[in-house]
Amino acid sequence: MSLILFNKPFQVLCQFSAQDGRPTLADYLHIPNIYPAGRLDADSEGLLLLTDDGKLQHDIAHPDHKQAKTYLVQVEGVPDADSLARLQAPINLGDFTTLPCKAVRIAEPEWLWPRNPPIRQRADQPTSWLAITLQEGKNRQVRRMTAAVGLPTLRLVRSAIGAISLASHPLMPGEWRAVTPAELVNGSGQ
Question: Which parts of the sequence belong to the Pseudouridine synthase RsuA/RluA-like domain (predicted)?
Answer without folding.
Answer: 3-148
